[in-house]
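Colleagues,

Please find the record for the two-part complex below.
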Amino acid sequence: MVKVEFLGPIGKAPLELDVTNLAELSKALQGDPEMKKWLENCAVAVNDTMVADLNHPLKSGDRVSLLPPVCGG
Amino acid sequence: MRVLELFDGPLAVEDILARWYREESGSNYGAYIPFIGTVRDEEGIEALSFDIYEPILKSWFDAWQERAKAHDAVLKMAHSKGDVPVHTSSYIAAVFSPKRKVALAMINDFVEDFKASAPIWKYDVRNGERIYAETRSTPMAGSGLLKG
């Protein structure tokens, strides 16, 4: 299972999903109405490394983080 | 070398600036250029509040430290977690370099990239409630990947 965590203001409990790449994760999350807005503007990290490719493979034990828009300082 | 310091609540600005000055006093840097971010009293807020995702903040900072090193400079940064009342400070960034021009350019580039890339989320605090500063926030590079 892949763990999906929702950082900062998203305020959603982590999920455990059976997906093999980010495209499958995208499909799974699109079915969640409360995530629609966040999917538009979140960046994605896998095991704390930023990724930009929907084909990025996922294996059991991986951790995916969704990072909403930032404003430090 | 990582010089990234995170604190609960407002920063002890005078202590941090003085300590960093002492730490580098024998390093032969000709320039020490700090930027200090202070919470302004505006739109009735009591404080700002911050969430930080530390693993990615650290790797982002380490990459910048390598850039600084390539210019014979060093970066230092301090940031608050949690609530930071108005008229106190949540952020200090500083560059030490042999000559001022490198430090002046780098402090600008560093703070700009910090605003766009550091995984930190800001909230206004009003009546004790945290409200995400959504309109002042910037989507990180690669945002929207999962929107389908």
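The longest strand of chain A covers residues 2-6.

Comments are welcome before we finalize the supplementary table.
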